[in-house]
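A favour between colleagues. Tell me how you read the following sequence-structure pair.

===
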Amino acid sequence: MKYQKVQKPVDEREKLRKFRELDDAFAQALRQLDDPDSDFDIPTGPPVRSLAALEQDDVETKQKEQQDEQERVFKQRFEALLNEYGIDQGDLAELVETLLGYGLWQQDQVPGRE
């Protein structure tokens, strides 16, 4: 017959001792997490955001991009019109101020639309 090495069964006391050590270490880690004065630094990732919040951010970003593009196009067309008619921005500002001052135009209303 061949000799077979019989593994020594782990003593129940040893199992209990290891479990208590692990439990104590876990409890200590939890206390460190709960302590606001603890200098225990735990790396964390970015906060978790809901899918609805991410979609709302996407919608707002697209709206902002569209608004920026519309403003850019408007300014470009406005500058082209001023150049086409040879009007200086200062002269145009003076004209608008005069029209507003005499009440011929109303602030925040499009002229010519009744």
